[in-house]
Amino acid sequence: MNGKETIGIIDSGVGGLTVVKEVMRQLPREKIVYFGDNARCPYGSRDSKEIRTYTNQMIQFVSQFQLKALVIACNTAAAVVLHEAKERMKLPVIGVIEPGARAAISASRTGRIGVIGTEMTIRTGAYLQAMRRINPELYAVGMACPAFVPLVEQQRLHTEDARRIVAETLKPFRFEELDTLILGCTHYPLLAPLIQEALGDGITLINSAEETARELSAMLSMQGLLNEQQEIEPKQHLFYTSGDKQVFQQIGEEWLECSLNVQQHMLEHANSSL
């Protein structure tokens, strides 16, 4: 391996762009290839077999780009596939759950932490287990928010409807006396202003994307895989979507604040095994 190889980032849709943004900020010399499976998003309400099949198809696709590391940016996919992907692949594979759990414990003053995520992420208990491995004494509670991902994917972020849905969904958490909340889906940081408004300024929001990029940076550094050449221009990164190219490009360019090289690619007929 050498420092010039590519970092693969996969997600069920546009949510993983929150990870891309942090990787671009923290590792500006690294080239990224991203795949968002918008055509089959959301993953959170699907069964584990479908999630495994779809995630492995994304991994197979990005693996053609001479990867030096893979980030499974989808919390749902990471909860189901991360362990086996780490075992099978001959390169560093990073999820978003462990970094987010560590950051939440570090940020919390009272040890009362909430997690919001998709139905599958919450059902697996992946965040709660990760936190309790570090601190068995903390109070942690999870809540599935299935209405949140469609708000992002359907470009309804800036609507009154979105504000109402977020506030009503999170109302039970206002009585939990939490001081820290993990945004346990990479789509959720795009809703962060509405989430903060719903829960108040006294709660710290944990964006797993920031911690994931930090962990990626440390791992590449330890293994001597950092690119030491000039910074990468945004147009050099490759973005693929299985859904509507124009919608992906509009959301991506708004979030990343730059022009993107976006192509459409369907995955239905790909081999489902790693």
UniProtKB/TrEMBL annotation:
InterPro entries hit by this protein: Asp/Glu/hydantoin_racemase, Asp/Glu_race, Asp/Glu_racemase_AS_2, Glu_race
Keywords associated with the record: Cell shape, Cell wall biogenesis/degradation, Isomerase, Peptidoglycan synthesis
GO MF annotation: an example: glutamate racemase activity
Pathway note: Cell wall biogenesis; peptidoglycan biosynthesis
UniProt-annotated binding residues for substrate: D11, S12, Y43, G44, N75, T76, T186, H187
Stated family: Belongs to the aspartate/glutamate racemases family.
Record's keyword annotation contains Cell wall biogenesis/degradation: yes
Function: Provides the (R)-glutamate required for cell wall biosynthesis.
Active site: C74 (proton donor/acceptor), C185 (proton donor/acceptor)
Phylogenetic placement of the source organism: Bacteria, Bacillati, Bacillota, Bacilli, Bacillales
GO annotation terms (biological process): cell wall organization; peptidoglycan biosynthetic process; regulation of cell shape
Provenance organism: Brevibacillus laterosporus (Bacillus laterosporus)
UniProt-recorded name of the protein: Glutamate racemase
SUPFAM superfamilies named among the record's database cross-references: Aspartate/glutamate racemase (SSF53681)
Enzyme Commission code: 5.1.1.3
Reactions the enzyme catalyzes: L-glutamate = D-glutamate
